[in-house]
# Entry
Amino acid sequence: MKKILVPTDFSGHAQNALSFAIGIANRFGSTITLFHTYKVRSTAGMLVSLDRYMKEDADGDLTSTLEKATAQLMNGATIEGVVIKADAVDAIANKADKQGYDLIVMGTQGATGMAEVFIGSTTNGVIRQSKTPVLAIPEGCEFKAFRSVVLAMDSKEIQSDQILKTLVDLVKGYEASLSVYHKVEGPEDQGIDAALSYWLEGIEHANHFDFSDENVNDSLTSFLEEYGGDLLCMIRHKRGFLASLFHQSVTRKEAFTSKVPLLILQDQ
# Structure
């Protein structure tokens, strides 16, 4: 976990996400990049002055945030800051993927917890566009060491151990317990990929199969509460478990409402 990218608009939920990034960086001795993008939307005659003011404001906010964050770092962790004029989703995804970041940490906001992860938003856009794992932090969720991790699996095969690397690093780094959850979707359900134990590199874990009639959102939320999960992990395939949650959220205006951090791994 060498490089962590933290997109920020300097809001409260973005600052909360930064606290998680700091906690993780302190554990692994990582470098954090605090990344702010801005975009000028105005008439041509005002662009130059607005651009200058927006850049100056962002630079001021960045300096202040970096000073506070630096005082919280330990174990060789470092932090740097970048401000650019660009579209947020494109800039975040490109920077993370092209510059070898191990993790993107982003805040979400709103009473519905994870709603904006699954409905059109910057977080949603980054998840869809980037190949880098994303850790989405619900508003109001305070950082604590991850002790109980839940990996929600569908029946899709896992293509390589690299897909699970971030999860493995966090579980090992925090010496956390790992529970694997699978919602059985009828008699033709293929269960959990048999290669999972191999890809988890010998990490002790327990498999749990849910045969209930509850919808997957309610069932998974109940499982997290029952097992005290403080980090939920999903693998985003082009089609599959997580993709179905995205689809449900858009069409039914419902969203997964977990209040714990959500780690999304990419299998593209």
